[in-house]
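In this section we walk through a basic example: taking a raw amino acid sequence and producing a predicted 3D structure, encoded as discrete structure tokens. The instruction is simple. Fold the sequence below.
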Amino acid sequence: MNGGMVAAAAGLVWLGMVIAISFLEAPLKFRAPGITVPLGLGIGRLVFRALNIAEAVLALIVLAGLALAAWPAAGFWLLAAILILVVQLAVVRPVLQRRSNRVLAGETSGKRSRMHRVYPALEAFKVVALLAGGLLLLATL
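The resulting token sequence is shown next.
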């Protein structure tokens, strides 16, 4: 198996995880009977922490695969997805974490953080980048 194939496979697995968690599990959990906002936030924190760890591992696999493949041009898309992940982890998640801490502590302010719009927008861009990168890399193999 060559590096490009490894990078493409890791990117496409990553894509599936993001779609399953961010676009299916996250919005649906709050519609389940008996799920309160604090309970949903608690579940979401656990799920997204696990997703982010898996994403970081997959990002490292993507980087290793791209390095072995001598950085094909299609790898730009996967590098964009990695950059988006870094922004999410370093900038957006800490803001959302502070907000969820306040909600879990009982603060009932109805004002949502702008980051509640930024995070899903970044997820959508990451989906596009992972899909494009994975498919373009496969097309070059």
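Looking at the output, two observations stand out. The mean pLDDT is 91. The first helix runs from residue 3 to 29. In the next section we compare this with other chains.
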